[in-house]
Amino acid sequence: MKASIAIQVLPAVSDRGELIRIVDEVIAYIKSSGLHCHVGPFETTVEGESYDELMDIVKECQHVAIRAGAEKVSAYIKVVYQPQGELLTIDGKIAKHAEA
Description:
Number of strands: 4
CATH topology: Alpha-Beta Plaits
Oligomer: single chain
Distance between the termini: 26 Å
Strand content: 25-35%
Largest sheet: 4 strands, antiparallel
């Protein structure tokens, strides 16, 4: 793995149900990428071999939220990129904290 992102998408909607529905659509899109991901309570983490592919996912998350009905969307993103060698994976970071 050469890169990972963590993305929190916040659609501007007034209804809590709509917020959840739109975020669920964004998460479904991320999962459809086929890349390894982990959904957390504040953000979704995705890892892959291509920095550009991950940046395309970041961009498309905004489009998915708008198409789903958000008038405006904010996103908070963390990016780790290491073209040489291997990054610590999602599983490597959280496995010891997983509930038994």
